[in-house]
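Subgroup meeting minutes
Present: P.N., E.W., G.H.
Scribe: E.W.

1. P.N. recapped why we're keeping a running log of single-chain structure predictions: easier to compare across weeks, and new members can see raw inputs and outputs side by side.
2. G.H. added today's entry (86 aa).
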Amino acid sequence: MIVCGWCGGSTPAGRCVSCGRDAALPWLQRAAAPPAVDAAATYRKRLSDARRDLEARGLDATIERIAEALDVSPRTVRRWQQLAAS
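Output recorded in log:
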């Protein structure tokens, strides 16, 4: 995964999944390598955003509720928590 040089989104190399443009082109035009996306940082952000949304609605941020909010399994949430902590 790299950072899209156009929209800043996380995407595989090639066409950006968000904006549809060549994600690496702006970086290559500046003679720079496209920066890689840190998976742990991505998981931390997704988990913290889900927790914040649940708490804003007055709900406890349990693993099951976080999983439901992110549309993943509770097992995936636990794995992401482990990866985000490293």
